[in-house]
Write a structure and sequence with these properties.
This protein has about 325 residues and is of the alpha/beta class. The protein has two domains: about 5-175, Peroxisomal Thiolase, Chain A, domain 1 (3-Layer(aba) Sandwich), CATH 3.40.47.10; about 180-325, Peroxisomal Thiolase, Chain A, domain 1 (3-Layer(aba) Sandwich). Helices cover about 30% and strands about 25% of the residues. The chain has eleven helices and 13 strands. The protein has helices at about 20-25, 35-40, 55-70, 95-100, 120-130, 155-160, 205-210, 220-240, 260-270, 280-285, 290-300, and strands at about 5-15, 20, 45, 80-85, 110, 140-145, 165-175, 180-185, 195, 220, 250-255, 310-315, 320-325. It has a five-stranded mixed β-sheet, with helices on both faces. Strand 4 (about 80-85), helix 4 (about 95-100) and strand 5 (about 110) form a beta-alpha-beta unit. The longest helix has 22 residues, at about 220-240. The structure holds coenzyme A.
């Protein structure tokens, strides 16, 4: 029997209606459209405004989009992974709530957290379950409500992040399509440069820290930028080398949408022409775990069976990596 590979067989997505444009941000903090556009490539982000709605709301919508598009019976889904850095609540699993709400009543489920690399690492986990032969339908959702921990008075972070979700289904493939190779890494020394310090187990929120806004995300942008450029480009180059791929062989680069300049630097390291670089950061900003599936959603109609896609991501922790995948279907 041929080896089982894990292929993506469907994509769904959801972004909230509300658009937080650079022009609106100009009225909130000391910034301007020209600075944001040239430094990051972002023009607007989507924000989930409704009270009481968390990451699971986004995840459910994206999963539902996929289920409707593919016409799958949610009862056939065996595992639901929600990749997220902004779970609904402490202690209660966002994935369990999401799975039940989409009708995946026969599935087990769990959250996976690796900051902006959550979805990339989730691709590795989902694929391993499929490759083991034990599971045939694994739903991987990347969802984040970043607006829940952004300080909209801090211009260093509020211009970057947005809310959104994307979902993909992994199924077994016997034609050798799907995930081919991966290089995944982490380095805990990066934690100090990107974190929300208060609100976790090390430093619970107190009235004082709350008033000082220490539960919001803090980022030392320049250091994160340098590490993102170096590490994302490095693993991308290595995965090409290891698989004897040249820039001509690659159909697409799907890189985490954190900053247009980081994506361009990664593409340039492997001499990839701009037309092969998926880009939607201008519409959504950095949606953390949702950037990669949102790219697949936006480019799905252009993807062809057999296309060679290189995924790359970098995030807090630090966490980073690259995955080489062969696309499994024509839209
Ligand atoms: C955040 C980021 C866009 C800032 O761009 P940068 O070129 O590094 O800018 P710097 O932080 O060096 O700041 C340059 C100047 O712009 C100013 N500035 C910062 N934010 C600004 C804003 N929103 N509007 C206008 N000016 C701003 C700074 O105060 C600084 O001014 P100074 O030179 O007078 O001190 C960039 O560092 C970045 O994208 N980092 C990585 C982000 C990321 O990927 N995060 C998630 C990881 S997955």
């Amino acid at each position: 029997m041929s080896k089982i590979t894990a292929a993506i067989t469907g994509v769904g997505a959801y972004v909230p209606e509300y658009r937080l444009t650079n022009q609106i941000l100009e009225t909130m903090v000391d910034t301007n459209d020209e600075w944001i556009t040239t430094r990051t490539g972002i023009k607007e982000r989507r924000i989930l405004k409704e009270e009481g709605k968390g990451t699971s709301f986004l995840a459910i919508k994206a999963a539902q989009d996929l289920i409707d598009k593919k016409g799958i019976d949610p009862k056939d889904i065996e595992l639901v992974i929600v990749a997220t850095a902004t779970p609904d609540m402490k202690a209660a699993s966002t994935a369990a709530f999401t799975a039940t709400h989409i009708g995946a009543i026969n599935a087990f489920s769990f959250d996976l957290e690796a900051a902006c690399s959550s979805f990339l690492f989730g691709m590795s986990v989902a694929s391993s379950y499929i490759e083991s032969g034990k599971y045939k339908n694994v739903l991987l959702i990347g969802a984040d409500k970043n607006s829940s921990f952004i300080n909209y008075k801090d211009r260093a972070t509020c211009i970057i992040f947005g809310d959104g979700a994307g979902a993909v289904l992994f199924e077994p493939n016997h034609e050798g399509l799907g995930l081919q190779d991966e290089i995944l890494r982490s380095n805990g020394e990066g934690r100090e440069f990107l974190q929300a310090t208060y609100g976790g187990s090390s430093y619970p929120i107190t009235a004082d820290t709350f008033n000082e806004g220490k539960h919001y995300v803090f980022q030392e942008g320049r250091t994160v930028f340098k590490n993102a450029v170096f590490n994302m480009a490095d693993v991308t180059e290595r995965i090409l080398e290891r698989n004897n791929l040249t820039n001509d062989d690659i159909s697409w680069l799907a890189a985490h949408q954190a900053n247009k300049r980081i994506i361009e630097a990664t593409a340039s390291r492997v001499s990839l022409e701009p037309a092969k670089v998926m880009m939607n950061i201008h519409k959504y900003g950095n949606t953390t775990s949702a950037t990669l599936p949102l790219l697949l959603h936006d480019y799905e109609s252009q993807l062809k069976k057999g296309d060679k896609i290189i995924f790359a991501a970098f995030g807090g922790g630090f966490t980073w990596g690259s995955i080489y995948l062969k696309w499994a279907y024509n839209s």
